[in-house]
Every structure is written in structure tokens, then in C-alpha cells.
């Protein structure tokens, strides 16, 4: 196990993730963790993260000074390096300004840390303070344009430090430096796997929850599904999942969730069939943001009622991922301080005094998918496209009517079926239909029709911030179009959305 001491860097979790990528188990500790605890956990190496503070400030975060005498290797990154310089008798100087950006690392001496790397590398720098005088026993083994002490080592005591961030993707071959530290210096074997993570997470959940009861809002999306499967593995019947059918779901969605979670996993699952309630509240409403607000508010009410019915509950579980956490952290803030609560259950935990259980908080999306598969969720489930909380409510343009929803559901099911059949589902970010409340003239058989329009939206994206329309082959589009028009009553026209984001958005509302 490798200990990552968190000095408040935005990248602490990224360091932990890189360590997992090297098949080594890591645990993040608060910076002030005692050497006794580290010893008890059997750590093989310690990484000191970066951080927004300056070691020159008297109140800046410091580790237990005894960590340098534990006899396990230490690697300081950025602020971590400055700590090493400052605490072990070197000299750190304040730079006039903080500078971020790419730099070229020139390696003078490789040692174990830089073994196997070329003499020159692009690295991502963050130079705030600088070490200008090395502590006794240390030598600088690489430099950048701005600093002679970009990488330092005391090979005898196995203490290492670097000014740049090897964990970020902009640092070329940074992961090899981390791997060198783990395997060549700390002697880690590199045989840790996601299945080992399941065990650790299960233990941690059991410890946190004890004999208390946990509630989880299951949406059927990847994150809440993986969280449900994991928590259920840990505490079984102490977990109750609540699935709110708001009447705005895709075709067969509720049945699918019931099949997987109730029948297959044998999870306590409460299903609140409340479609008519939502529709009533949405009657006559056309403004997209008002629709969202109404759907969100009604969700909280329904969820709240279900929780009340269950009785005593102590924890609210959420499938919050690391990217959700980082999104809500002010730059330079403490990552632990702020939690982005799932927009759908905002306001709930406070009043009910529920404690939060967020077992996926340290993981990235791809890791959550791997974890899901490890837990026995199908590939189909863990590779699902994102689906917005307000669901089809923002895909029926303007006022929502149940007759429109019915048409949209059928058309959407055909689109998804064809995307999956042709292998395009996995290649694109999202694929869905939009119902346009516009009637146009058509001819079917010998008869004139006056029916609605379905728009097909298929986009490619990395993170939903920008997106481009996917170039689906014409023959596939042809099948989709003719199937929708032939099979869905009420539709006589299908159009393709060929707008990118920006300036459009992915959803139409
Ligand atoms: P836009 O339409 O803004 O969508 O380009 C970006 C991503 O966010 C999803 N989306 C939502 N998700 N509640 C959600 O949970 C919403 O109200 C919402 N609106 C958009 C959208 O599907 C896409 O993945």
C-alpha cells in the first residue's frame, strides 16, 4: 500500500488513480496523519501531494516530521518537494509569481526514479515557491528552464522530490516516473486489481455503516447502479434503493431496473410509480427551465415520501464520482470541503439529517465501469449513455403530453435498437430522439397523413462540454428513418440533427 498525503492539491486523486493504473493499491490520508497509523497500515511508500499553500507561511500544512524516519521511501510532488526542502534543512524561496505551464525537463542523472526515460521530456510545471538550497544528502538530478532543482534525490535515505506534476497527462511519460517510484524504489509488485478494490471498498462501507440503514436513489444510470451493487455486496438488506418512475423514462426502463436489481441482485427495491403526478404538475408548461424545476422538485417530494415510509434511515448513498467532486471545488480549495450533491436529491439530506455514503468518490468514470463489471453488472449496463435527470421531459419540445411521450418512447427504442445492432452505440456519446410538436403532411398508402416529426440526435463527445454530430452511415440512417415512420403511429417524418455544440447544445431544451 502506498500512502498519498493530501495537502489540498486538485490532483491528489489523480495521483491515487495513476498508482492504481500501475496496479498498486493506494490510500489517501489527511496530511497530518501520524506515523503510527501509517506504520499500522503497513505502508511501503509515501507520496506528498501538491497543494495551494506555501511552506514559507507559518500556518501551512505540515506532515508528521517523523515520516522521514519511518524507513519507507518518500516522494514529494511540487508542494511536497518544497516541504522536503524546508523541513530537512534546505532553503525555499518565494517566487515572484506562480507560473503554470509546459516546460522541458533535462535529465542529468537517472537513478532509480528516472530510469528508462529519455534525456529530455515535456513536463507540466507549477512553480510557485522554489527550493534554492538542497538539504544535506540531496542532489538535483534534473532541471527545467526555470529551475535547477526540478528533480532531487537522497538515494541513501530514499527521499525524492519533483517540482512538476508527473500525474497530469500533460507531463510526458509521467506515469513511468510514478511506476519507477512504486516498483524500483518502494518494491511494490504491481499485482493489485479492481477485484481487490471491491474487497477494500466493501470493508470500508461495513465499517462506516455498522448496523445502520442506508437509502439510495437508483436512477438506472451507471453511477447509481454501480453504487447500489457495491453497497449491497457490503451490507445486503440494510440497503434500500428507491427508484422513482417519473413517467419520463425510456421504454421498458422501469422493468429493466426491476429485473436487474430486484430479481437478479435481490436488492430491496422500492419503485414509486408516479408518472401521473409529474404529468399533472407539468400540464401547460412549455418553458424548458420551468419543466426542469418542476420535475426536480417533484422528484424530491416523491423520494422524500418513500424514505419516510421506510422509517428509520441513517445514510443517504450517492454515486458521486471524483469528477463530480472536483467540479465543485474552488481552485485552491480543500477537496474535502465541498460536495456536489446529486441535483435530484438536493435539499434532502439536511432536513432528514442523513449522513452521506459515497463509495465511488475516489474513482473516475472508467474505473467505475470496471468496478461495475467486477460486481456482475452487464456490459450493457456499465456502458450506458448519459441520460438527463428530467428524462424525456426535455425531449418532448414544449408542453409534455402522454400521447407525445408514447410516440417518443417508441421512436427512441427503435433508434437505440439500431445503434446497438450496428455497433454504433458504443462508438458515440449519446443517441436519442426528440419529439417535435409540429404536424406535417405525408402520404401513406393512398392516404394523406398529418403527423408529427421525430428528430434524431447522435453526438460524439469526450465530456459533454463540446460535441459534434456523429457521421452515421446513410444506410443505417435509412433503416432508422423507415422503421420509425413505419412502426410508430403518429410519425410521418424523421429529420437528422446536424448541429455541433457549441453553438447548439446536445439536448434540444
Ligand atoms: P447539453 O444539452 O447542455 O447537455 O449540451 C450536456 C449533457 O448534460 C445532459 N443534460 C442533463 N443532465 N439534467 C441532467 O442530469 C439535466 O437537466 C440535463 N440537461 C442536459 C445531456 O444529456 C448531456 O449529456
Automatic annotation (TrEMBL):
Pfam families assigned to the protein according to its UniProt record, in alphabetical order: GATase, GMP_synt_C, NAD_synthase
Function, as annotated:
Catalyzes the synthesis of GMP from XMP.
Q: How does it assemble?
A: Homodimer.
Q: Which Gene3D superfamilies match?
A: 3.30.300.10, 3.40.50.880, HUPs
Entry EC number(s): 6.3.5.2
Residues that hold ATP according to the record: 219-225
Gene designation per UniProt = guaA
HAMAP family xref list: GMP_synthase (MF_00344)
> Which reaction equations make up its catalytic activity?
XMP + L-glutamine + ATP + H2O = GMP + L-glutamate + AMP + diphosphate + 2 H(+)
Which pathway, per its entry? Purine metabolism; GMP biosynthesis; GMP from XMP (L-Gln route): step 1/1
Q: From which organism does this entry originate?
A: Ruficoccus amylovorans
Task: List cellular component terms (GO).
Answer: cytosol
GMPS ATP-PPase domain: residues covered = 192-384
What molecular functions are annotated in GO for this chain? ATP binding; GMP synthase activity
Q: How is this protein named in the record?
A: GMP synthase [glutamine-hydrolyzing]
Sorted UniProt keywords: ATP-binding, Glutamine amidotransferase, GMP biosynthesis, Ligase, Nucleotide-binding, Purine biosynthesis
Q: Which residues form the active site?
A: 78, 165, 167
